[in-house]
Amino acid sequence: MEKVPRWRVDLMKAASLSGFDSQVIGPEAKLVNDTVKHIMKKLNHASSRYSKGLIGIDFHIEQIKKLLCFGSPADGRIVGIWGIGGIGKMTIAEAIFNTLSSQYEGCCFLKNIKEVSK
């Protein structure tokens, strides 16, 4: 019962949100496409906060994103990140994944590939 007041407040907030007007946007397919793009943009913004507070990472992320996004996502580019242990290679790779993964239909991030392959 203690959750009911919080649910009520949250549902009132949700009811007051405005959405897309299907009469203005046009065919249903375009409405769905615009809605998905809007949500993905919001999700990308949320995942881009991953690098906040990490000093010096943004430059590296942008450099690697330029290499990866040279062509279309269908080009299947691979970029290697190497260096001594503990310098942030995995952190950069994960931040890039979080930023770009929404552009693909399916993807996964294999964080400890060495441990998986044993």
From TrEMBL:
It comes from the Eukaryota. Residues 60-111 form the NB-ARC domain. GO terms for molecular function: ADP binding. This is NB-ARC domain-containing protein. Signal peptide: none annotated. InterPro entries: Disease_R_plants, NB-ARC, P-loop_NTPase, TIR_dom. The lineage of its organism: Eukaryota, Viridiplantae, Streptophyta, Embryophyta, Tracheophyta. GO terms for biological process: defense response; signal transduction. Residues 2-49 form the TIR domain. It holds the Pfam family NB-ARC.
